[in-house]
Hints:
disordered C terminus, seven-stranded mixed beta sheet, three-stranded mixed beta sheet, 9 helices, Spore Coat Polysaccharide Biosynthesis Protein SpsA, Chain A, 12 strands, about 270 residues, globular, alpha/beta
Amino acid sequence: MRMSVIIPVKNEERNLERLLPALLEQSHPPEEILVAIAPSTTDRSREVTEKYHPDAVWVEGGMPGPGRNKGARHAHGELLLFLDADVLPGDAYLLRDIRQDMRERSLDVATVDHVGIDTSIREKAYFAIFNAAQRVMSHSKRPFGCGTIIAAKRDVHERIGGFDERWAFYEDSDYIQRAVHDGYRFAVLDRPAYVRVDPRRLRKDGIMPVLKNGIRADRYARKHGVITDIGLIDKDYFDHDTAMSGTERKVKPRFPTRLYTTNEKIETIQR
């Protein structure tokens, strides 16, 4: 199964210096790497990518959801692997194990465990809690996952409409939940498949705030639907350059609608 790796990027030159060589050194490297670069990028992300992988496909990105969708529209692989730039494969066999496990278990969407890079004891505890919760919830009707790494069959990605671009936060879990709601198979792959994650978000915002806001996001999504503004979760917590100062917007529950992008236009299809 051919694999296309899609990486949304905004000022990630340092992380791309680590990630790209690690991908190319995999025992079964991807057939294609696509980089969705945000127009506001000001660093050397493009130059670093061209240094390590001159054949990388460039698309104009933005927020993570739209960036992933645009990358997917230009991808040729049957299997899409969405990766954040600040991760590293757990070992040299990650991409092989993802393909093999998804094929053998007939999975449509999958993710893996997360392990921090150079983490403290408290950060190690955070990742242990995250992994345990992710595995437990993977058997429920409301599984969750992190856009750090999500693998999906291309046809499934297209059928569920890709990432819903209205979401400012929690779009990754919404993506997985819509796939499960539509009857597709999701799982957290077994070890040794895992990624190593830069704990910069934990160090910037704090472990407890990150945990609490993940819970708040799920509760808000259950009650109101789409999180159109990160400030809806905690207006004093997130420092996001697209956060709005407007009041909370009521939206319809998530599952009656589906969003996808065609010819750069977002269309909503009512079932």
